TrEMBL record:
Taxonomy, superkingdom: Bacteria
Taxonomic lineage of the native organism: Bacteria, Bacillati, Actinomycetota, Actinomycetes, Micrococcales
Organism: Pseudarthrobacter quantipunctorum
Protein name: DUF779 domain-containing protein
Length: 134
């Protein structure tokens, strides 16, 4: 997608971004950062809201060996650093390892645990197959 904000590469040995944010997602995240402070995403497996990317205040969701850091965004817009990590459960990553993920925003109510829920919007993953040389 053109005009997306690509995450910095975080997986060892890779040279391509696996995740991006649409301009609408960046705009909402900057607003949420002002309200909640530093943020993070976690994408888990499962059904219902577990299939949506969840946005939390940084550190509120504890990551560990069962998670993969897919990317690191800079939401600063040239001002003070605003790093935002994008995590995915290792099990989910095994299914989605061949895709590029773009976080977008759509109208609707997401999970009550994700910080965008009161905004009347929810984050949504759009995926496309990765096209890299074999």
């Amino acid at each position: 997608m053109p005009d997306t904000l690509k995450a910095a590469v975080t997986l060892p040995g890779e040279e391509f971004s696996r995740v991006a944010l649409t301009p609408a997602a960046v705009q909402l995240l900057r607003k949420l950062w002002l309200q909640h402070g530093p943020l993070m995403f976690h994408q888990s497996g499962g059904c219902c809201d577990g299939s949506s990317p969840m946005c939390y205040p940084a550190g509120d969701f504890i990551t560990g060996e069962a998670d993969v850091l897919l990317g690191l965004f800079d939401l600063s817009d040239g001002l003070e650093p605003k790093p935002l990590e994008f995590w995915m459960s290792r099990e989910q990553f095994s299914y989605w390892s061949h895709t590029h993920l773009t976080v977008d925003v759509v109208p609707g109510r997401g999970s009550g645990f994700s910080v965008e829920a009161p905004e009347g919007k929810r984050f949504l993953i759009r995926s496309t197959l990765m096209d890299w040389p074999a």
